[in-house]
Structure formats: C-alpha cells, structure tokens
Amino acid sequence: MSERKQLVAGFALLFALIISGLTYILWPRPAWTEAELATLRTLWIGSLPPLAPDPSNQYADDPRAAEFGKQLFFDTRFSSNGEVACATCHIPEKGFQDGLPLARGIGTTTRRTMPIAGTAYSPWLFWDGRKDSQWAQALGPMESAVEHGGNRTQYAHLIDEFYRTEYESIFGALPDFSDTARFPESAGPVADPIASAAWNAMTPEDREAVTQVYVNMGKAIAAYERLIMTGPSRFDAYVQAALKADTKTMNSSLTSDEVEGLRLFIGPANCIQCHNGPLFTDNHFHNTGVPAVDGLPEDTGRAQGAQSVLTDEFNCLSPYSDASPEDCSELRFMVADGEELLRAFKPPSLRNVAGRAPYMHAGQFTTLEDVLAHYNSAPTAPAGHTEIEPLGLSDRQLGYIIAFLKTLDGEITAP
Amino acid sequence: MKTQTAKTILIVALTAIITVIVFILLMPIIGPRFMHPLMSGYMPMHANSVPPASLDISTVRTTDNGLYRVSFTSELNPLAINQIHTWTLHIETADGQPVENAEITVDGGMPQHGHGLPTRPQVTQNLGNGDYVVEGMKFQMGGWWEVKFSITSGGKTDTVTFNLILEG
Lengths: 415, 168
Ligand SMILES: [Cu+2]
Fold this sequence. Notes:
The complex is a heterodimer of chains A (415) and B (168).
Chain A: H1 3-26, H2 34-43, H3 63-74, H4 86-89, H5 134-143, H6 152-162, H7 164-171, H8 193-201, H9 204-225, E1 229-233, H10 234-243, H11 247-253, H12 256-266, H13 302-311, H14 329-332, H15 368-377, H16 395-405, E2 410-413
Antiparallel strand pairs in A: 1-2
Helix pairs in contact in A: 2-10, 3-9, 5-9, 6-9, 10-11, 12-16, 15-16
Chain B: H1 2-30, H2 37-40, E1 60-62, E2 68-74, E3 85-93, E4 103-110, E5 115-116, E6 122-128, E7 131-137, E8 143-153, E9 156-166
Antiparallel strand pairs in B: 1-2, 2-3, 3-7, 4-5, 4-8, 6-7, 8-9
The structure holds copper (II) ion.
Copper (II) ion (CU) is lined by residues 110, 113, 115, 141, 143 of chain B.
C-alpha cells in the first residue's frame, strides 16, 4: 500500500470514529426521565390547586370586601403621618415589594419587605410565620410603630369619616364612634405610651367595638390580597410542552443553559427540597445559615414566630376568627419549640425572584450570584444549625441555576 | 514501509487527539445540551434524596417487638407534600383482636435529612374497634419519610415505623 492510500484509509477510519462518536452524543434522547417529568409537573403552575376557602375569614371571597380592601391597601391616611399605606412598601409595579434591604415606613423595619403574590396559599405569614392568616397579618403593620404607626381608634374614626357606606354594605352597621371621650382620637395596644394609656382607659365593651372594626379592615384587605397572583412563566411553557413531549416548544421556551439550571435545581443542587410545589416554596421554616446583620437586633426567626402566633390576639382559634377549631389544624398541630426553629425562616416564592433584589430576610445578599455563592459554600449558621450542605458546584453551574431562576418571571395580576 | 505506517498512525492519532481537545474546549460555547449525561458527571438525583432500594413501604406492619399489627389509611390519597391532613390508624394484637384503649404518640422525620416532621400530629379521637384518628399529618418535601407510632396498651409499649416515599 502506498503512503497516500494509508493516509486516506487512516482518515476514513478517524472520520468514521468521530461521526459515530458525535452521533452517540448528539442523538436526540428523551430530555427527562419519567421520574423527573413527575417532579417537573409538581413545579408547574398548572398544578396549583384552586385557592381553598379561608374559613377564618367569612368575607375572604366577597368581591365587595376585595374592592374595599383594595382602597384600604392604597390609602395613606391610615398612618400616623398620612404618608404610609401598605402600597408604600408593597409596590404593585415592583411585584408588591420595595427592592430595599430593610423597609421604610414611619421608621425602618428590621426585616425585608416580602412579595405578596400567592401568599393566600401559605398557612403562615411573615418571615417567621407569626401570623396564620392574611387578615391577621394585615393588622400587624398598621399598629407597628415603624410601619403605619397608627392605632385602632384612629382607624375606626377614619372608617367612620371616609368609608361608612362601603363598610356598612359589607359588615353591617358601624358603631357610633363620635363620642371622643369614649373613643379617643388616638388609642390602641401600641408601643406609643399615650395611645396605649388611652386604650387601657377605655371600657372593655368600647375596646371590643373598635377592635371589631379593625378586624374587619384586615378581612377586607385579605379579600383583596387573595386575588394577587403570579402568572405563567417561560418555565411553565417549557413544562407544559415537556409533558406533551413537544420538543419544538420546549426548545423555544428555554435555552440549553436554562434547562441545565433546572436539572441542577431539581437534582444535585437540591433546591427543590424547600423551594417545591408550583410556587417554589414549602411555606415552612428552615435555617439556611443566612448571616445575621450587624446592628440589627438578634433575630431568632421561627423560634420567636411560633411563640407569637400561639398567643396572637387574632389567630385562627381567637374569637375574631370565623373558623371552628377543626379548621385550625395548622395552628393546633404546629411545632412550637425545638432546636429546628432557631433562625428558621420561610422561603419566599421564587416566582419573579430575579427582579426583586436584594434577597433574604434582611436583604443580606445583593445579587443572585451572592445567593448562589452562599448555597454553594453553606457557611455555619450564626445561631442554630443550617440545613444546607456545601454543593461543590462550579461557577458555570451556578450560572446555569441563575439563568433558570430568571425563567420564573410571570405577570403578576391584581384586581 | 514500516516508517510510513508509523507516520500514518502518528498523524491519525494526533488528529484524533486534537479533535477531541477542540471539542472539549468548545463545550462552554456549544453548551451543556450536547453533553451526554455521563459526560456531565453526575447522577440524576442527589445521593441524599435517593431512598434505599430495599425500603419496605407497606401500610400494614407489625410493631418492633411483635406485640401489635398496625395499619394506616390517609385521608389524603395519594399522599402529597405541603397539605395538612388526617390519618386513621388501626391497631390489632398479633392474633387479630382490635386494641381498644391504646395510648399513642406520633413522631417521624426524614432519616437522610436529619429533620423531624413539620407538624406535631396527635391522636385526637378513639373511634373504637381499634381505630384512631391522627390529626395534623404533614410533609413538606419529597423523598423518604419515616412516621413512628409508639403504642401503649395494658402497660405494654411497642413501636412501629412506616416508610413513605413522597413526590415533590
Ligand atoms: Cu427533608
């Protein structure tokens, strides 16, 4: 054989090898196993069940209450300086949060504003779950000195003055609050010593009448908040296509990097342990070793939150709740103490997460890169024990996960 | 002839090596889509999410010391994550007599994650005939869960563990 012929034969062999190798690698194969598809389905927004009724709030699904609640949500008169409403921190254009590490109302809070969309599905509200319904939650900021800074009789007088018709059409007759000797301009169980003393000087019956109006405000706001939902994202289009094995739509919905991020999210990176279900949160509490912030008071997370909700004036078992005790399983069977609660916080939904930096309960991380670096290294917790372990992923892989998180943006709808 | 063959083999081998190296270098650009799962070097699921293959997931079990036979039915069927629900527990003696007045405590968790149940379930009703209502059952993530009951009747205590595999 001549040298030429040998070379040609050699190259032919080489090409055959390369072609068969490439065919092996590039040959289309099912993108996901059956088990993985089942997992993807659990994350798909189409798996979100219809919102269950809230037995603790008989007005929860009353459209008039939602309409009234919306007005309250945006009305800055319900504050000590006339400048703060729920929407001051929960800004609709920003996904109902404010993009700040710590929220600013009358003062500065010690935690970050949480997004609201989809929270009607959560049995617990706030980072530490110290409230067990949306209506009970709404009554927190209104009496907080650093948020709305107002008080109950002030609010009752405002309802009397500006919303009597709306109120009465939903909740029935509004008591007569005109006697300011019995119903001071400013009184409530709040931090302010003058308002607090005025509250204690009122008769139990008068306090009760005011509190009932206050509770109804919360129930109306909750009726509105229940309707704030997050819509389908590119990720959902991908899963919908994957469930039908529609490769074309799959490929046009997510890029290969994003798919790789998804694979890591539900697999080796273990994110799905806590960020599960169609809202990407289990609405439970976890210590993930997020650093404490210098200068802020010690935050024990769920350890304190659990104690607070048990004694909360407005919890599911309280006289202001419309639920019967059988409807309060979450509260009755909650874990109230133990090591696991220390510095455990509720994971927020990861839907629309990319657009709402900074992250974590006190805005500890500025970017998603910081968040992923934290999960990758899993530092020891400032208190209690972290549930996460170092992932050992490469920067490229962390980048894929970030790319995936960015596919979770969907339109937030509110009435 | 000998040197010619050697030369050819060398050229072919070098070309092969260069092709492979170029392909590897191009990986970041063409992206992971073209990577065979074997090449990305990991298993589909994290090791701590894979339950042991031989796990007994039956819903009828004999207690550890053989005193009772215990079975459960769940009001939520199939079992799913993040929903609080109720179980009914049925307890019999080894020879099939219903155990009527048992004291029962509930515990559990995820052996591979080292955490307990997200709730503190309790037996809230004795239905008679060896049936008991367990309220407050909940699981907050997919994977392998253990639910343990400690059963005391007539001064004799025995324990039983049910294994569950949840999707999620
Ligand atoms: Cu777990």
